[in-house]
């Protein structure tokens, strides 16, 4: 089995910003404007205590004009700050949304072009979570927490400058009384937060993946009576998440040490400042400015603790998203094809000595060789588990073989760009994918987005107009993605119409085994008969009537071609 990279549950968070920089670089202009505006807003807020101090001085000197001036300045600073802050938030939200949009688009594009084998190796809920809710969390961090984080960082720097300017002695006392216990408490919190939050995110992803898998397999679980087994597994994962979330909460409690240190520092400064004023060594205004600025500093420190928690969660989310982008970039390489070779519109599909395994050492296909000349019509038959679906996926270029090669018109599939490949070889799986919407919208899910006229043409060609007319609202009939409204056979009819619209050189149909009523089966067979004659048709056939209609057969038995010679045509 070729090495298929699997996404890491808790990827390393070190250097996460450096790794994210290539995605941020295109938006550096708006980020710089947003940061500058935000820092200016913070600066105006930091100037408020000095203005209050100045007002106190004016009162003490009995200068009414000075007092009015101070009040006007106070009002101007508050208004200016509000305008600057809102503008900064808007810029930041805009820059952040752009970054997140780029990340989301890159993730979706990489997933869309990732080999099927890679997608199947991941837990589906995990991929979904990384590309939806974790990106949404990141967006909300950028919109709401990042502006606060910038403001807090600004306050810490500017307010410390104000404190130093007014009294370096009091600042020294503040630093000695407050900083050591506060820093210790913060480090204690951070040490725990890193692992606790990462574990919580990983457990949350596991619960989402288990839940999604359970919902997808509901029918199977119910039919096997295995719901309790699944519920037990879900309970176990849920319990782990519960414990991880509780551990995170305990870690958050560690940050209370900072509040305690603040109370002690407040009391110390008030007593010392008061004594200095009584002794005539310091004006009242200085103590007032100091106490106000100190409050601002503490509020920022409190906010910082909460924000660091958010920052930690976002770092984990960002690391998981970058892990997805890096891993998909790695698996993506080479799958785009050289694009140099001339590829014919029609040609022989040739499989040469194919080997394939899902699990190391267990070959599902061994030395399989077969030819499907242009315009040939073949059945692919064999007992359950003999490897028919796997061979079909290799023939369609959805899996890369572990050994051997598939060529179309002489060109290895690996050298054909994916877009070109899809136009030439198309696989209709047993369970055709439908999306929530109308039948028309589902039929139009092909690269050319055909109009109604072309849809009618395709339906007419395949003899499927009576089927559409028989639906409740014709082409406007609503179908749900869970497919309750369409049978497996009808979904395959949708697949066949899409195929007629794409007009591939090779059409591979993995015939639905269950739920095909005789009328739909007849419709599928008629549609297959009416597909253009120069197209090769390969049908993984389960029904004898289908096998009888096809002039050639490739038989698989335990992963080997039992007989790849064309069978004599049947009447
Ligand atoms: N994604 C997978 N991971 C691991 N093993 C797989 C996977 N898909 C198929 N297999 C195994 O590979 C073997 C061949 O499966 P495949 O679906 O190709 O057979 P098949 O002939 O199409 O069977 P059926 O007629 O029942 O659809 C089986 O043993 C199956 O269990």
Quick overview of this protein structure:
The protein is 64% helix and 11% strand. The chain has 571 residues and is α/β, with parallel strands linked by helices. The model is unreliable at 333-339 and 564-571 (pLDDT under 50).
Textual characterization of the structure:
It is a single chain. The protein is α/β, with parallel strands linked by helices. The chain folds into two domains: 19-330, ABC transporter type 1, transmembrane domain (ABC transporter transmembrane region fold, Up-down Bundle); 349-563, 3-Layer(aba) Sandwich (Rossmann fold). It is 64% helix and 11% strand. The protein is built from 20 helices and twelve strands. The strands form three sheets. It has a six-stranded mixed β-sheet with strand order 6-9-10-3-11-12, with helices on both faces. The chain has a four-stranded antiparallel β-sheet with strand order 2-1-4-5, covered by helices on one side. It has a two-stranded antiparallel ribbon with strand order 7-8. β11 (552-557) and β12 (560-563) form a beta hairpin. α3 runs antiparallel to α12 (284-332). The longest helix has 50 residues, at 64-113. It starts with 15 loop residues before the first helix and ends in an 8-residue tail after the last strand. Residues 120, 358, 364, 382, 384-390 line the site of adenosine-5'-triphosphate.
């Amino acid at each position: 089995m070729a090495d298929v990279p699997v996404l890491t549950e808790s990827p390393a968070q070190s250097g996460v910003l450096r790794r994210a920089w290539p995605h941020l670089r295109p938006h550096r202009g708006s980020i710089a404007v947003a940061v500058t505006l935000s820092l200016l807003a913070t600066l105006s807020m930091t100037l408020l205590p000095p203005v209050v101090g100045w007002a106190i001085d004016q009162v003490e000197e009995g200068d009414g004009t000075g007092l009015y001036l101070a009040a006007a300045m106070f009002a101007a600073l508050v208004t200016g700050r509000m305008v600057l802050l809102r503008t900064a938030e808007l810029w930041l939200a805009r820059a952040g949304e752009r970054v997140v949009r780029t990340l989301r688009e890159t993730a979706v594009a990489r997933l869309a072009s990732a080999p099927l084998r890679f997608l199947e190796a991941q837990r589906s809920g995990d991929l979904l979570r990384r590309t939806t809710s974790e990106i949404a969390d990141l967006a909300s961090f950028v919109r709401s927490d990042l502006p606060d984080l910038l403001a807090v960082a600004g306050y810490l720097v500017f307010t410390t400058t104000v404190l130093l300017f007014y009294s370096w002695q009091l600042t020294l006392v503040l630093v000695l009384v407050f900083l050591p216990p506060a820093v210790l408490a913060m480090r204690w919190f951070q040490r725990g937060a890193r692992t606790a939050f990462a574990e919580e995110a990983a457990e949350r992803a596991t619960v989402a993946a288990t839940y999604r898998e359970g919902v997808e397999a509901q029918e199977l679980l119910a039919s096997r009576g295995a719901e309790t087994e699944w519920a037990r597994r879900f309970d176990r994962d849920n319990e782990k998440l519960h414990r991880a979330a509780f551990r995170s909460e305990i870690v958050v409690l560690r940050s209370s040490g900072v509040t305690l240190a603040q109370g002690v520092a407040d009391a110390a400064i008030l007593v010392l400042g008061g004594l200095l004023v009584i002794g005539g060594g310091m004006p009242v205004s200085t103590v007032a400015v100091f106490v106000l600025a100190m409050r601002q500093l503490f509020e920022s420190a409190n906010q910082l603790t909460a924000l660091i928690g958010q920052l930690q969660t976002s770092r984990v989310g960002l690391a998981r998203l970058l892990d997805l982008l890096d891993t998909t970039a790695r698996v993506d390489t080479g799958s785009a094809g050289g694009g140099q070779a001339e590829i014919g519109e029609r040609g022989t599909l040739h499989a040469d000595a194919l080997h394939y395994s899902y699990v190391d050492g267990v070959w599902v296909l061994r030395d399989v060789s077969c030819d499907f000349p242009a315009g040939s019509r073949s059945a692919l038959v064999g007992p359950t588990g003999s490897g028919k679906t796997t061979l079909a996926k290799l023939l369609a270029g959805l899996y890369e073989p572990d050994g051997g090669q598939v060529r179309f018109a002489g060109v290895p599939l690996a050298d054909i760009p994916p877009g070109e490949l899809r136009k030439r070889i198309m696989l209709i799986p047993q369970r055709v994918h439908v999306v929530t919407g109308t039948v028309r919208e589902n039929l139009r899910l092909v690269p050319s987005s055909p109009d109604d006229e072309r849809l009618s043409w395709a339906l007419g060609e395949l003899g499927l107009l009576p089927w559409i007319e028989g639906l409740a609202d014709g082409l406007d009939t609503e179908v749900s993605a869970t497919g309750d409204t369409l049978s497996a056979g009808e979904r395959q009819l949708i697949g066949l119409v899409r195929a007629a619209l794409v007009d591939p050189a090779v059409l591979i149909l993995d015939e639905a085994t269950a739920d095909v009523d005789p009328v739909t089966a007849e419709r599928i067979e008629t549609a297959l008969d009416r597909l253009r004659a120069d197209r090769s048709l390969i049908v993984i056939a389960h029904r004898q009537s289908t096998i009888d209609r096809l002039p050639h057969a490739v038989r698989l038995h335990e992963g080997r071609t039992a007989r790849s010679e064309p069978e004599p045509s049947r009447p």
